[in-house]
Amino acid sequence: MTTNRRSFLQAGAGAAVAAAAAATASSAASTPPSTAAPLAAAGGKAAPAAASGAILPSGFPAKNLPPVLETLKPLQFSSELVVTTPQPVYLLPRDHKFHAGGFYACNEFWEWHYFSGFAKDAQGNDYALFFGTDPVGYDPKSGGYAFVPAVLSISPIKEGRKYHYFNNFPVFEPQRPADATSPADFQYVLRNDEAGWSIDERYYANDERWIFRMKSKNPADPWCDLDIRLGAPGYIPRTPTGIEEEGVNDTGRYNPQTMHGLSYYYIAPNMPFTGKFGFGGRTVQLTGSVWLEHQWGNIKGLDQENCRWRWFSFRFDDGRMLAFRHWMLPPDNLPAHERNHYCMVHPDGRIEYGFPNREMRFTPTRAFSVPGSTEQWNPEGLMETPFGNFFLKSLVDDSVFISKTGMTFWEGPMAMLEGNSKGRKIGMAYVEQYFQPRGGPAAMRTLPEQDLARELPLSGTTRRA
């Protein structure tokens, strides 16, 4: 192990992560919710039982800190002369909410709550699923987001196909749940009245509980009603700093004062859930674990290759969880290895970052295209990592999603096979391939363009000789 290529962060999860290892990947689904131990919620309250593996999270905020010395004698500085309010990168649970306003009122802004994972039904059948909402831009006429795309997808592994819905939701109504118990609680109601679709997403801070409901007036459309809890290791920064530099920048003009080319980024790689999913005229009761990604900022600048990537979430059968992003370059979607980065959660609680890391790379071995898309999608390939090599094999080739606005991507489950394509299964992965031009689809850039990097060098007075 070479420390010059890897950095480490001890998250203190310890045995808690090992206890939750069984809740990852498909093994999380094998225990019915009635046998689960109660969640220990924030504030020391006992929370309702959830799916197997739901336990007290660690990491945010840090626990068992020594007393703050400031309490011995009040701070003697004037806030007019010394900044006396700490300035965190982000503050949870507040920043679970979506963001808007100020320099986010632009074409570059993008945010998402994104969940992907695996589950089983009562008969032991395996399913892959992902769902989420992602506000984009700003609409000066409504004072809200320009677009709120949302997706719901479930893939019965035996069938090798997906059932899904992917569309824009013009109505976005943020509110507090009627049963809220914390100022951090929120409820987002989304509607596409033309299509007859609605989404109800909720967060309850005291229980660390998320609710995701999607329904349609068309009985043939998929729908869901899911109860999601937080498992170990809790919420963790996706990068060592909790901020990601987006894509490959021509000029290096990232701007921390406007978040140009930057995003806040954290994940919760193990969230046990239970709930119902409807698709194809049937309803199944599922138990499993999903992986949450929350990212926001002025991501889609025009001076960066920021909408061209491969993203991976790996769930090893031994309990390890690994996140990896491969930034790509046009015209052939070749990887920019100098921008690779990963985050590994070990069963003993260690959280390891490789940033950057040229040892991680995906080499495709198969490609195909579909009507409505000019891209070549890669459902198989060799994954090289500092932790050993393994082969990725698609379980559902039918995983291309195409929207009317031009947002097109491949998002699907893959089996992780030891060594090569004939190796034994060692885990499951969810993989996203997103190959868009700079700034994303032109149809989603509705405002006059702004140069949000214009303040570099950082604001201040420069005396010239």
In short:
By secondary structure, the chain is mainly beta. The protein has 1 helix and 29 strands. It has one helix at residues 15-20, and strands at residues 7-10, 38-40, 46-49, 109-120, 126-133, 149-156, 163-168, 171-175, 186-192, 197-204, 209-216, 223-229, 236-237, 243-245, 248-249, 262-279, 282-298, 304-305, 308-316, 321-329, 334-335, 341-345, 350-354, 361-368, 377-384, 390-394, 400-402, 408-418, 425-435.
Entry keywords:
1 helix, 465 residues, 29 strands, AttH-like fold
In CATH, the topology is named AttH-like fold
Q: C-alpha Rg, in Å?
A: 22 Å
Distance, first to last CA: 50 Å
Q: Name the average pLDDT.
A: 85
Which class in CATH terms? Mainly Beta
Biggest sheet record: 13 strands, antiparallel
Q: What's the total number of strands?
A: 29
Proportion of strand residues: 35-45%
Q: What CATH architecture would you give?
A: Beta Barrel
* Overall SS class: mainly beta
Runs in which pLDDT lies below 50 for 5 or more consecutive residues are 1-62
Approximate shape: globular
Secondary-structure element series: EHEEEEEEEEEEEEEEEEEEEEEEEEEEEE
What's the helix count?
Answer: 1
Q: Count up the domains.
A: 1
CATH superfamily: AttH-like domain
**Percent range of helical residues:** under 10%
